[in-house]
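Quarterly update from the structural biology core.
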Amino acid sequence: MNYRQDIEKVLIAFIIAATDEEAPFDKEELVPMLGALLSMLCEAFASE
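Predicted structure, tokenized:
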């Protein structure tokens, strides 16, 4: 259960970071990581 909560928190942080105009990185750098996190989140929900 903690695993799912941690992934959800990280996912929300990535979404906020990707939409922040003052972030020190480009959205293109976050998209692959965001995709991987979404995949992990889907697996976490599917396994339950």
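The longest helix spans residues 27-46.
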